[in-house]
Design a protein that fits this description.
Mean pLDDT: 92
Structural class: alpha/beta
CATH superfamily of the domain at 518-638: Isoleucyl-tRNA Synthetase, Domain 1
Largest sheet: 4 strands, antiparallel
Helix content: 40-55%
Strand order of the largest sheet: 1-2-4-3
CATH topology of the domain at 518-638: Isoleucyl-tRNA Synthetase, Domain 1
Shape: globular
Low-confidence stretches: none
RNA sequence: GGGGACGUAGCUCAGUUGGAUAGAGCGGCCGCCUCCUAAGCGGCAGGCCGGCAGUUCGAAUCUGCCCGUCCCUACCA
């Protein structure tokens, strides 16, 4: 509702400015920090002051009287040097709050690619940040009416998978069948975690083995033939399944899983390669250390590039780099490659929605049409910004400038470990890391917090809290509540930091359920539901809310506390729009927290059920119900469930 | 060397395209459970917004130069 008023006022004022003064400028409508200044404030008098060569206060006075009556506005006051403070008509505003704003989709399909975990080991907390950020952004976009497709790219033929295969084969001396047997058991991704760190350690001590084993394994995997290739499929498929299960615990889902093996087998790269060569986006280097490589000139992907800067796209041995494959994949996402994957439903996925996975053989099943996006968001950590620049430059070099502009690197900083977390986990910190405020996680070193371990720990902690408060509740119910709380705590923790903040993961902070946390927000939702349930238990049903007209809202919302509460709770759409515009899911999380804070105060200050004045009681119940709806809408966007009780 | 990010309360972080008195959580101290769940509420203490200059009616926010921290800069991904 707030969002709606903001937009219409902006239009009105903007039209007035151009008619009255012949100027067009973006009308700044801010929300004053101090509620005594009203709900909105115009600062355009300041912006106009220089152009009109008049003091801002005079312009403000002129504007305020010229604008006169505006719909939904009760009063305008000139304040300070030239602010125009706007007070909304509380009765009309209150009466309009229940209305649901229509959502118009516009701008074509948006592809969001996230998660993208190498299928060679268990997911860790860094991957969680990626998935939660991506999933939440998807929910934000969908909540505002966009058509969104979620892709999770599976690099099942890369070095990381090859290294684990080499570990199983050369170090652990396991056959393909033995690995397949292990893969059927629980938490195979944990087994791979150890195999990977073991083989990485071995490679660190034995460079010859690294070169030989990796070469042999990669060669088989890329050819798609041999024992090691078969083992690679077993490992990657099983680990992908583990990852999907881990993400499902957090409510993270996907529409399609494009795999690198199909990029290879369906010759995606060959098509992209032809386009790149034809458009002279890349060239064959003839001299220097990169002789024999197909490279992209540095000037394509960075300003002020040194003249000899270039990025290898195809190695001198003819094998394409990851970036090259990524350019092909990116072209496909926009429908520019002239090729498509084949798809099959991923078997064994829980019902509800089908997850499709790419396959190289045509399948009869009617898969939806994937790719062909108008806009693409790649949720990838900031360390890869250089490579993302190269990918976008590839599109641009092919003449797809619009798509390059709509190819957005949704970057975020890494999740590192606080020194205390390292100590708790029993990791030895190297000398060079001692003085640092955080330590980077490393799959190769096995240094990190596994996602499932963290989730388990959160559930156990939450279960203790729930059991303390509800010792007599059935166990499965308590467990359900604890799981919801754990998800809330984890997702909120991953979202509360803005994207360019490095998270120094600290177990105690992550396990905290008080203050600026998910459970605090969930608690507000639980209590709102409880009040309504309690009232119904005592009185049979809720009162008839249709009796609440603008007059009643006007009378009751003259109470400053209730009015402020209603205003805050009316800003859901505004918060979602802001989070999308700024690309910061953290803003939506922050808003959810502010909502919960407002409710906590309301809960404390207004005993709803015990209110004796009938009109006021009805309004309090209506506010509680409507607030609950608003908060749950916000929580839904954050992917945070509401526990049955806490 | 080049590119990028960051520096705000003891700690961890917000700060909406430059706006009114710089906020939150945690930690510290003091209060509040006969009353819809205290995972809560209220209060107090705590800041030359890294430094210096500039831009202007106005700067934590924009520009330049310093200081400090981190990331990237592979024929790895």
């Amino acid at each position: 509702m707030f969002h709606h008023i903001q937009n219409s006022l902006q239009e009105l004022v903007s039209a007035h400015l151009s008619a009255r003064y012949g100027v067009t400028l973006p009308v700044a409508l801010e929300e004053p920090a101090d509620p005594r200044f009203g709900e909105l404030a115009l600062t355009c008098a300041f912006q106009l002051a220089r152009q009109l060569r008049k003091p801002p206060r005079m312009i403000a006075q002129e504007l305020a009287s010229d604008l006169g009556e505006m719909p939904g506005v009760a009063a305008m006051e000139v304040a300070g040097n030239g602010y125009i403070n706007i007070r909304l008509d509380r009765g009309a505003y209150g009466a309009s709050l229940g209305a649901v704003a229509p959502r118009a989709a516009a701008g074509g399909k948006i592809v969001v690619e996230h998660t993208n975990i190498n299928p060679n080991k268990a997911a860790h907390i860094g991957h969680l940040r990626n998935a939660v950020l991506g999933d939440t952004f998807v929910r934000l976009l969908r909540a505002s009416g966009h058509d969104v497709e979620v892709q999770n790219y599976i690099d099942n033929t890369g070095v990381q998978v090859a290294d684990v295969v080499a570990g199983f084969h050369f170090v652990e001396k396991k056959s393909r069948d033995e690995v397949a047997e292990m893969a059927r058991r629980d938490r195979f991704d944990y087994v791979c975690w150890d195999v990977y760190s073991n083989v990485s350690r071995h490679f660190g001590e034995n460079a010859a083995d690294e070169k030989a084993w990796r070469h042999e394994t990669l060669h088989q995997i890329e050819a798609g033939e041999g024992e090691l290739a078969a083992m690679g499929n077993v490992v990657a498929d099983a680990v992908v399944r583990c990852h999907l299960r881990t993400m499902a615990r957090l409510g993270v889902t996907y529409d399609v899983l494009p795999r690198e093996s199909e990029i290879l087998h369906l010759k995606f790269w060959a098509s992209a390669f032809e386009q790149l060569k034809e458009r002279k986006a890349i060239y064959l280097e003839t001299e220097g250390p990169k002789a024999g490589c197909w490279v992209m000139a540095g000037s394509y992907y960075q300003q002020d590039a040194a003249s000899d800067d270039s990025k290898v796209i195809v190695r001198s041995n003819g094998i394409v780099t990851y970036v090259g494959k990524d350019i092909a994949y990116q072209l496909w996402k926009f429908g520019l490659l002239g090729k498509d994957f084949h798809y099959e439903p991923l078997p064994g996925e829980p019902s509800g929605r089908t997850v499709w996975i790419s396959t190289s053989r045509p399948r009869p099943e009617g898969a939806p049409s994937f790719g062909g996006a108008a806009t693409v968001y790649n949720v990838i950590d900031s360390r890869q910004s250089y490579l993302q620049d190269v990918v976008a430059a590839g599109l641009r070099a092919l003449g797809y400038t619009e798509q390059a502009d709509r190819s957005i690197h949704f970057s975020y900083e890494m999740v590192a470990l606080s020194p205390r977390a390292c100590a708790e986990l029993g990791f030895e910190i190297g000398e060079e890391d001692k003085g640092k405020s955080y330590v980077q996680v490393s799959g190769r070193k096995g240094l990190g917090v596994k996602a499932d371990d963290l989730i388990d720990k959160l559930i156990a902690t939450a279960l203790r809290e729930v059991t303390d408060r509800h010792p007599d509740a059935p166990e499965d119910e308590r467990h359900q509540a604890a799981s919801a709380i754990a998800i809330g705590a984890l997702r909120y923790f991953m979202l509360k930091y803005t994207r360019n903040t490095v998270i120094a993961f600290d177990m105690q902070e992550a396990l905290s359920f008080e203050g600026d946390t998910g459970p605090y927000v969930q608690y507000a939702a639980v209590r709102a539901r409880k009040i309504l349930r309690e009232f119904e238990t005592r009185n049979g049903s809720l009162p008839d809310f249709s009796a609440m007209d603008a007059g009643a809202f006007g009378r009751q919302l003259s109470d400053e506390g209730l009015w402020q509460f209603a205003v805050v709770a009316s800003k859901v759409d505004s918060a979602i729009a802001k989070a999308i515009a700024s690309g910061e899911p953290a803003h939506a999380a922050k808003y959810a927290f502010q909502l919960a804070q407002a409710f906590s105060r309301f809960y404390h200050d207004y005993p709803v059920i015990h209110e004796t004045n009938a009109e006021k009681r009805t309004l309090l119940l209506w506010l509680t119900s409507w607030f609950g709806h608003q908060l749950e809408r916000t929580l839904d966007v954050l992917g945070i469930p509401v526990p049955p009780y806490m």
